[in-house]
TrEMBL record:
The keyword Membrane applies. The keyword Nucleotide-binding applies. It is found in: Cell membrane. This is Amino acid ABC transporter ATP-binding protein. Pfam families: ABC_tran. Belongs to the ABC transporter superfamily. The lineage of its organism: Bacteria, Pseudomonadati, Pseudomonadota, Betaproteobacteria, Burkholderiales. SMART domains: AAA. InterPro entries: AAA+_ATPase, ABC_ATPase_HisP-typ, ABC_transporter-like_ATP-bd, ABC_transporter-like_CS, MetN_ABC_transporter-like, P-loop_NTPase. Its main location: membrane. It is a peripheral membrane protein. Keywords: Amino-acid transport, ATP-binding, Cell membrane, Membrane, Nucleotide-binding, Transport. Residues 2-235 form the ABC transporter domain.
Length: 244
């Protein structure tokens, strides 16, 4: 379980996360919605220890991210996919995927490469294993990024606006992969502006506004009149997103 308790994060005088409480259980798909600047991406960065906390606590399967020794164990439980791919440009797709399993998990190279090729095959990119990132489309690079995260065999997959830099066709490619992962039981925390997709794959919807958690509801309830739509701020956000 990912346990988030009273988390506070500030950048100078700006409070980006203000007392956020959240639980993510194994097998859940939880989408985080909210306007730009609401703290969604910052929350992901706090979970994997890329941002230090100013208050509260986060634990991943009992490992606190504010403890240096426990942070390494927490990170091994989580795979993160970033919105801007973050692939190493001097490494092929296969090398990008196998680097961490070989260096961190000490997986034998032959085994790591075999598993990486299986992952690439699962996202339709086996024939691009030896391609450099510059030779791949945005959608292909993001699929390699997903494979890289999955190569570490994480218990939780953290997805930070993974389609925001993609055009509609490439977005569809990536969302199709994520839908398959959700259907297979992969635990995901999904920061997104893809409202329809979040509604399709999520067990729960979390809504952040100005760093505060306004709603944490089962998906059907969130989109019902007695749920999220009953809150004016959420209704305003959903109405605006449906017109964009």
């Amino acid at each position: 379980m990912i346990a988030i308790e009273g988390v506070v994060k500030r950048f100078g005088a700006n409070t980006v996360l203000d007392g956020v409480d959240l639980r993510i259980a194994p097998g859940e798909v939880v989408s985080i919605l909210g306007a730009s600047g609401s703290g969604k991406s910052t929350l992901i960065r706090c979970i994997n220890g890329l941002e230090p906390l100013d208050g509260g606590a986060i634990a991943v399967d009992g490992n606190r991210v504010d403890d240096a020794k426990q942070l390494q164990r927490a990170r091994r439980c989580c795979g993160t996919v970033f919105q801007l791919f973050n692939l190493y440009p001097h490494m092929t797709a296969l090398q990008n995927i196998t680097l961490a399993p070989i260096e961190v998990l000490k997986t034998p190279r032959r085994q790591a490469e075999e598993e990486a090729r299986q992952l690439l095959a699962s996202v339709g990119l086996l024939d691009r294993a030896d391609a450099w990132p510059a030779q791949l489309s945005g959608g292909q690079r993001q699929r390699v990024g997903i494979c890289r995260a999955l190569a570490m065999k994480p218990r939780y997959l953290l997805l930070d606006e993974v389609t925001s830099a993609l055009d509609p066709e490439m977005t569809a490619e990536v969302l199709n992969i994520l839908a398959k992962l959700a259907a297979s039981g992969t635990t995901m925390l999904f920061v997104t502006h893809e409202i329809a997709f979040a509604r399709q794959i999520s067990n729960r919807i979390v809504f952040l506004d100005q760093g505060r958690l306004l709603a944490d509801l089962p998906t059907a309830q969130f989109f019902a009149a007695e749920g999220g739509f009953a809150q004016p701020r959420i209704a305003q956000f959903l109405s605006k997103m449906s017109k964009s």
